[in-house]
Design brief:
With 321 residues, this protein is mostly beta strands. The protein contains one helix and 28 strands.
Length: 321
């Protein structure tokens, strides 16, 4: 009996065949935003925020993949981007390192305000007025914070660290995900509790549809699914086992939700049926090593297609229309 010799070329060909056989599509790389990878990032229709391993925080324009500004939280030092977000109208952005928050003007690149945070920040969402921010924090709370005058507006309490937060486009509903194995819906600005979405593992990803009709949540190593925010009822379970969801975003019409994963995959689901519509797998930047980069952030562009940022610093376009 002969022995098959698995050369690197043969392995690469086998991997390519596996990708083809499972129906995964290849996204288009439209820009290299960081040579050595990123800590974190955020994508809007107009801009991408990148926290580079070697060059700190920068703001990029998506249309021509041009770096507009390099941002620092203190003179002479690169900041480690823990979380970032961009206002719906694109006029302002917020970046956080473990204990500071900076509010930026995206047109001029100027820092508008700088604040020390009351606890370590794990995630941030910016409300439509471009001044109020919802901070998910390690101290088991989410804080509605005025980033212009520094006032604390509302505190939302969990029993574990709050690792992901989102706010509806009308600023009326907040969603928080926690290590206490729950996601919670809150009415803003008062912070009135609405529903507790119970999981059986820490909840790591939370996203609201633009009109707040749906909530998406993913628990660590377990299922991820879709909820009705008016009743707190789970509508669909998209996967019996979560292979490492990292981010999620809804389309403007609420009909689709995109989910990014640590294994370089992006999957698109139908919110009405819960069925998978499309599936992409990012090819490794190094063809001889198939370890690649996680999907850091996903977002819908204004043309209905998807944008995704990888941990390797590549900005991708995924044609979904």
């Amino acid at each position: 009996m002969g022995t098959a010799i698995k050369t690197p070329l043969a392995i690469a060909l086998c991997l390519a065949l596996l990708v083809a056989c499972d129906g995964a599509e290849q996204p288009t790389v439209i820009g290299e935003l960081a040579a050595q990878g990123v800590y974190n990032g955020a994508i809007s229709e107009q801009f991408t925020i990148v926290g580079s391993l070697n060059h700190g925080i920068s703001l990029w324009r998506n249309s021509d993949v041009e770096r507009l500004y390099d941002w620092r939280h203190s003179d002479g030092e690169f900041a480690e981007l823990v979380a970032g977000t961009i206002a719906t109208d694109g006029s302002r952005a917020v970046t956080t390192d473990p204990r500071t928050l900076v509010l930026w003007n995206t047109e001029t690149g100027a820092a508008l305000q700088y604040w020390a945070t009351p606890a370590a920040v794990l995630d941030v969402a910016l409300l439509s007025d471009g001044r109020r921010a919802l901070l998910g924090m390690k101290d088991h709370s989410a804080l509605l914070f005025d980033a212009e005058d520094g006032s604390y507006l509302t505190t939302l309490l969990h029993e574990g660290a709050v690792v992901d937060v989102d706010v509806s486009d009308d600023d009326q509903l907040a969603l928080t995900a926690s290590e206490d194995e729950t996601a919670r819906l809150w009415r803003l600005p008062q912070g009135t509790p609405s529903f507790v979405l119970t999981h059986d593992n820490p909840v790591t990803v939370a996203a609201l549809s633009p009109d707040a009709r749906f909530a998406f949540t993913a628990s660590q190593g377990r299922w991820f699914g879709l909820w009705d925010t008016s009743t707190g009822r789970k509508l669909h379970t998209f996967g019996e086992r979560n292979t490492g969801a990292t981010s999620a975003a809804f389309s403007k019409d609420n009909r689709r939700v995109a989910v990014g994963f640590v294994n370089r995959e992006v999957r698109l689901y139908d919110t009405a049926t819960g069925r998978e519509i499309r599936h992409w797998r990012v090819r490794s930047a190094n063809p001889w090593r198939n370890n690649g980069s996680a999907i850091v952030a996903v977002s819908f562009a204004d043309n209905g297609n998807l944008l995704a940022l990888t941990g390797g610093g590549r900005l991708l376009q995924l044609r979904s229309t």
